[in-house]
Write a structure and sequence with these properties.
With about 70 residues, the chain is mainly α. It is built from 3 helices and no strands. It is globular.
Length: about 70
């Protein structure tokens, strides 16, 4: 069952994102891996603008996982 107030799901830290939001998140992940931190930060800011305050805090908590 989805809790739309959260960013994550039972199985995925980013499971409640829309497909478009998830695509931007994955682009940010690849940008980090390619050493393009400024691009990743821009994508993070844009994504955060679409989220609730609670979801933004969750994104901040999960963000370090993107570099793994």
């Amino acid at each position: 069952m989805k809790d739309i107030r959260r960013l994550d799901s039972w199985f995925d830290p980013f499971g409640n994102l829309s497909v478009r939001q998830r695509a931007h998140l994955e682009l940010a992940r690849e940008s980090i891996r390619a050493g393009r931190r400024a691009e990743a930060d821009r994508l993070r800011t844009a994504l955060g603008g679409e989220l609730t305050a609670r979801q933004r805090r969750q994104l901040d908590g999960y963000w370090p996982l993107l570099a793994e």
